[in-house]
Amino acid sequence: MSPIDRLNGIMARLRAPVGGCPWDVEQTFETIAPYTLEEAYEVADAIERGDMDDLKSELGDLLFQVVFHARMAEEQGLFVFDDVANAIADKLERRHPHVFGEEAAKADGVAQKARWEDIKAAERKAKAQHGVLDDVPVGLPALARAAKLTKRAARVGFDWPSTAEVLDKLDEEVGELKAEIVAGDLDKAREELGDLLFVMANLARKLGVEPEDALRGANAKFVRRFGFIEAELAKAGRTPEQSDLAEMDGLWDAAKVAERAG
Protein backbone atom coordinates (compact mmCIF):
# COMPACT_ATOMS: atom_id res chain seq x y z
CA MET A 1 0.00 0.00 0.00
CA SER A 2 1.37 3.40 -0.96
CA PRO A 3 1.59 6.15 1.68
CA ILE A 4 -1.13 8.18 -0.05
CA ASP A 5 -3.43 5.13 -0.20
CA ARG A 6 -2.81 4.58 3.51
CA LEU A 7 -3.65 8.23 4.24
CA ASN A 8 -6.83 8.09 2.16
CA GLY A 9 -7.81 4.91 3.99
CA ILE A 10 -7.32 6.58 7.37
CA MET A 11 -9.42 9.51 6.22
CA ALA A 12 -12.22 7.21 5.07
CA ARG A 13 -12.15 5.47 8.44
CA LEU A 14 -12.30 8.77 10.32
CA ARG A 15 -15.31 9.86 8.27
CA ALA A 16 -17.15 6.54 8.59
CA PRO A 17 -20.68 7.16 9.95
CA VAL A 18 -20.31 4.04 12.09
CA GLY A 19 -17.08 3.64 14.02
CA GLY A 20 -15.54 6.88 12.77
CA CYS A 21 -14.51 9.98 14.70
CA PRO A 22 -17.59 12.05 15.62
CA TRP A 23 -15.72 15.34 15.12
CA ASP A 24 -14.41 14.38 11.68
CA VAL A 25 -17.80 13.08 10.60
CA GLU A 26 -19.60 16.35 11.35
CA GLN A 27 -17.16 18.56 9.42
CA THR A 28 -18.00 20.28 6.12
CA PHE A 29 -16.02 22.14 3.46
CA GLU A 30 -16.89 25.38 5.23
CA THR A 31 -15.79 24.26 8.68
CA ILE A 32 -12.53 22.75 7.45
CA ALA A 33 -11.51 25.69 5.23
CA PRO A 34 -10.11 27.78 8.15
CA TYR A 35 -7.92 24.85 9.19
CA THR A 36 -6.64 24.56 5.61
CA LEU A 37 -5.56 28.20 5.67
CA GLU A 38 -3.99 27.77 9.10
CA GLU A 39 -1.94 24.79 7.94
CA ALA A 40 -0.69 26.73 4.91
CA TYR A 41 0.49 29.51 7.23
CA GLU A 42 2.24 26.97 9.43
CA VAL A 43 4.08 25.63 6.40
CA ALA A 44 5.24 29.17 5.61
CA ASP A 45 6.26 29.67 9.24
CA ALA A 46 8.39 26.52 9.26
CA ILE A 47 10.12 27.65 6.06
CA GLU A 48 10.79 31.09 7.50
CA ARG A 49 12.29 29.54 10.63
CA GLY A 50 14.40 27.16 8.54
CA ASP A 51 13.06 24.19 10.53
CA MET A 52 13.03 21.36 8.01
CA ASP A 53 11.84 18.73 10.49
CA ASP A 54 8.86 20.92 11.30
CA LEU A 55 8.34 21.63 7.59
CA LYS A 56 8.02 17.89 6.92
CA SER A 57 5.37 17.67 9.63
CA GLU A 58 3.51 20.78 8.49
CA LEU A 59 3.48 19.65 4.86
CA GLY A 60 1.88 16.43 6.08
CA ASP A 61 -0.76 18.45 7.94
CA LEU A 62 -1.44 20.45 4.78
CA LEU A 63 -1.67 17.28 2.68
CA PHE A 64 -4.18 15.93 5.17
CA GLN A 65 -6.34 18.97 4.49
CA VAL A 66 -6.37 18.10 0.78
CA VAL A 67 -7.27 14.51 1.60
CA PHE A 68 -10.03 15.71 3.97
CA HIS A 69 -11.65 17.91 1.31
CA ALA A 70 -11.31 15.20 -1.33
CA ARG A 71 -12.96 12.66 0.96
CA MET A 72 -15.93 14.92 1.62
CA ALA A 73 -16.26 15.52 -2.12
CA GLU A 74 -16.16 11.77 -2.80
CA GLU A 75 -18.94 11.20 -0.27
CA GLN A 76 -21.08 13.70 -2.21
CA GLY A 77 -20.24 12.13 -5.58
CA LEU A 78 -18.36 15.24 -6.75
CA PHE A 79 -14.79 14.00 -7.29
CA VAL A 80 -12.13 11.81 -5.67
CA PHE A 81 -8.51 12.39 -4.62
CA ASP A 82 -7.15 11.00 -7.90
CA ASP A 83 -9.21 13.63 -9.75
CA VAL A 84 -7.48 16.33 -7.70
CA ALA A 85 -4.04 14.92 -8.50
CA ASN A 86 -4.86 14.51 -12.18
CA ALA A 87 -6.29 18.03 -12.39
CA ILE A 88 -3.09 19.65 -11.14
CA ALA A 89 -0.96 17.33 -13.29
CA ASP A 90 -2.97 18.33 -16.37
CA LYS A 91 -2.71 22.01 -15.47
CA LEU A 92 1.06 21.84 -14.97
CA GLU A 93 1.57 20.14 -18.33
CA ARG A 94 -0.78 22.61 -20.03
CA ARG A 95 0.98 25.62 -18.51
CA HIS A 96 4.48 24.37 -19.34
CA PRO A 97 4.38 23.75 -23.09
CA HIS A 98 8.09 24.65 -23.20
CA VAL A 99 8.75 21.55 -21.09
CA PHE A 100 6.01 19.07 -21.96
CA GLY A 101 4.88 20.36 -25.36
CA GLU A 102 6.36 21.21 -28.72
CA GLU A 103 7.39 24.76 -27.88
CA ALA A 104 11.11 25.53 -27.69
CA ALA A 105 12.50 24.39 -24.37
CA LYS A 106 15.19 27.05 -24.66
CA ALA A 107 12.74 29.94 -24.21
CA ASP A 108 14.02 32.36 -21.58
CA GLY A 109 12.32 33.07 -18.25
CA VAL A 110 10.65 36.28 -19.44
CA ALA A 111 9.09 34.55 -22.44
CA GLN A 112 7.98 31.62 -20.31
CA LYS A 113 6.30 33.93 -17.79
CA ALA A 114 4.46 35.77 -20.57
CA ARG A 115 3.32 32.47 -22.06
CA TRP A 116 2.18 31.30 -18.60
CA GLU A 117 -0.01 34.39 -18.24
CA ASP A 118 -1.44 33.92 -21.75
CA ILE A 119 -2.38 30.33 -20.89
CA LYS A 120 -4.02 31.37 -17.62
CA ALA A 121 -5.98 34.08 -19.46
CA ALA A 122 -7.23 31.46 -21.92
CA GLU A 123 -8.25 29.22 -19.01
CA ARG A 124 -10.22 32.07 -17.42
CA LYS A 125 -11.95 32.74 -20.73
CA ALA A 126 -12.86 29.07 -21.04
CA LYS A 127 -14.41 29.23 -17.56
CA ALA A 128 -16.40 32.34 -18.56
CA GLN A 129 -14.26 34.52 -16.27
CA HIS A 130 -14.08 37.50 -18.55
CA GLY A 131 -13.11 40.17 -16.03
CA VAL A 132 -9.41 40.77 -15.40
CA LEU A 133 -9.93 40.33 -11.65
CA ASP A 134 -12.53 37.55 -11.78
CA ASP A 135 -10.45 34.70 -10.40
CA VAL A 136 -8.42 36.51 -7.72
CA PRO A 137 -9.55 34.47 -4.70
CA VAL A 138 -11.67 36.36 -2.18
CA GLY A 139 -10.41 34.02 0.54
CA LEU A 140 -6.81 35.22 0.30
CA PRO A 141 -5.43 37.27 3.20
CA ALA A 142 -6.49 40.84 2.46
CA LEU A 143 -2.93 42.15 2.05
CA ALA A 144 -1.94 39.33 -0.29
CA ARG A 145 -5.15 39.78 -2.30
CA ALA A 146 -4.51 43.51 -2.63
CA ALA A 147 -1.08 42.81 -4.11
CA LYS A 148 -2.54 40.21 -6.48
CA LEU A 149 -5.33 42.57 -7.59
CA THR A 150 -2.84 45.32 -8.43
CA LYS A 151 -0.58 42.85 -10.22
CA ARG A 152 -3.47 41.62 -12.35
CA ALA A 153 -4.58 45.17 -13.18
CA ALA A 154 -1.00 46.17 -14.02
CA ARG A 155 -0.87 43.46 -16.69
CA VAL A 156 -3.43 45.41 -18.72
CA GLY A 157 -1.70 48.74 -18.20
CA PHE A 158 -3.53 50.01 -15.12
CA ASP A 159 -0.42 50.85 -13.11
CA TRP A 160 1.77 53.73 -12.03
CA PRO A 161 4.90 54.15 -14.14
CA SER A 162 7.27 53.98 -11.17
CA THR A 163 7.46 53.77 -7.39
CA ALA A 164 7.67 57.58 -7.24
CA GLU A 165 4.00 57.92 -8.14
CA VAL A 166 3.05 55.24 -5.62
CA LEU A 167 4.95 57.09 -2.90
CA ASP A 168 3.12 60.29 -3.84
CA LYS A 169 -0.18 58.43 -3.56
CA LEU A 170 0.96 57.06 -0.21
CA ASP A 171 1.54 60.59 1.08
CA GLU A 172 -1.89 61.59 -0.22
CA GLU A 173 -3.60 58.70 1.57
CA VAL A 174 -1.77 59.46 4.82
CA GLY A 175 -3.02 63.05 4.58
CA GLU A 176 -6.60 61.90 4.00
CA LEU A 177 -6.39 59.51 6.94
CA LYS A 178 -5.07 62.26 9.21
CA ALA A 179 -7.91 64.56 8.13
CA GLU A 180 -10.58 62.00 9.02
CA ILE A 181 -8.94 61.27 12.37
CA VAL A 182 -8.91 65.00 13.18
CA ALA A 183 -12.54 65.24 12.06
CA GLY A 184 -13.41 62.36 14.39
CA ASP A 185 -15.13 60.37 11.63
CA LEU A 186 -14.04 56.83 12.48
CA ASP A 187 -16.03 55.23 9.64
CA LYS A 188 -14.24 57.35 7.05
CA ALA A 189 -10.94 56.89 8.88
CA ARG A 190 -11.42 53.13 8.58
CA GLU A 191 -12.01 53.51 4.84
CA GLU A 192 -8.94 55.72 4.43
CA LEU A 193 -6.84 53.25 6.43
CA GLY A 194 -7.94 50.54 4.00
CA ASP A 195 -6.92 52.75 1.07
CA LEU A 196 -3.53 53.32 2.72
CA LEU A 197 -2.96 49.59 3.18
CA PHE A 198 -3.98 48.96 -0.42
CA VAL A 199 -1.42 51.48 -1.66
CA MET A 200 1.20 49.85 0.58
CA ALA A 201 0.44 46.50 -1.06
CA ASN A 202 0.82 48.15 -4.44
CA LEU A 203 4.16 49.63 -3.40
CA ALA A 204 5.34 46.20 -2.27
CA ARG A 205 4.46 44.79 -5.69
CA LYS A 206 6.35 47.58 -7.44
CA LEU A 207 9.39 46.81 -5.29
CA GLY A 208 9.13 43.08 -5.98
CA VAL A 209 8.34 42.35 -2.34
CA GLU A 210 5.60 40.03 -1.09
CA PRO A 211 3.68 42.21 1.41
CA GLU A 212 2.72 39.22 3.55
CA ASP A 213 6.39 38.24 3.81
CA ALA A 214 7.39 41.80 4.67
CA LEU A 215 4.73 42.04 7.37
CA ARG A 216 5.66 38.63 8.78
CA GLY A 217 9.22 39.88 9.03
CA ALA A 218 8.07 43.01 10.83
CA ASN A 219 5.96 40.90 13.19
CA ALA A 220 8.94 38.69 13.99
CA LYS A 221 11.11 41.75 14.60
CA PHE A 222 8.52 43.23 16.95
CA VAL A 223 8.27 39.97 18.91
CA ARG A 224 12.06 39.71 19.12
CA ARG A 225 12.56 43.29 20.31
CA PHE A 226 9.69 43.20 22.77
CA GLY A 227 11.15 39.98 24.12
CA PHE A 228 14.39 41.89 24.69
CA ILE A 229 12.44 44.49 26.68
CA GLU A 230 10.84 41.79 28.82
CA ALA A 231 14.18 40.08 29.40
CA GLU A 232 15.88 43.31 30.46
CA LEU A 233 13.06 44.21 32.84
CA ALA A 234 13.10 40.68 34.26
CA LYS A 235 16.75 41.18 35.24
CA ALA A 236 15.48 43.85 37.64
CA GLY A 237 12.62 41.65 38.80
CA ARG A 238 10.00 43.66 36.93
CA THR A 239 7.46 43.16 34.16
CA PRO A 240 6.31 45.53 31.39
CA GLU A 241 3.26 46.40 33.50
CA GLN A 242 5.66 47.75 36.12
CA SER A 243 7.53 49.89 33.60
CA ASP A 244 6.51 52.92 31.55
CA LEU A 245 6.63 53.94 27.90
CA ALA A 246 9.81 56.01 28.24
CA GLU A 247 11.76 53.15 29.78
CA MET A 248 10.45 50.56 27.36
CA ASP A 249 11.14 52.85 24.41
CA GLY A 250 14.73 53.17 25.61
CA LEU A 251 15.02 49.41 25.86
CA TRP A 252 13.54 49.11 22.37
CA ASP A 253 16.35 51.32 21.06
CA ALA A 254 18.83 49.18 22.98
CA ALA A 255 17.39 46.09 21.25
CA LYS A 256 17.96 47.71 17.88
CA VAL A 257 21.56 48.51 18.79
CA ALA A 258 22.10 44.93 20.01
CA GLU A 259 20.72 43.57 16.72
CA ARG A 260 23.06 45.74 14.66
CA ALA A 261 26.01 44.72 16.81
CA GLY A 262 25.10 41.06 16.58
TrEMBL record:
It comes from the Bacteria. InterPro entries: MazG-like_dom (IPR004518), NTP-PPase_MazG-like_C (IPR048011), NTP-PPase_MazG-like_N (IPR048015), NTP_PyrPHydrolase_MazG (IPR011551). Residues 27-100, 166-225 form the NTP pyrophosphohydrolase MazG-like domain. Gene3D superfamilies: MazG-like. It holds the Pfam family MazG. NCBIfam families: mazG (TIGR00444), PRK09562.1 (NF007113). This is Nucleoside triphosphate pyrophosphohydrolase. It comes from Brevundimonas kwangchunensis.
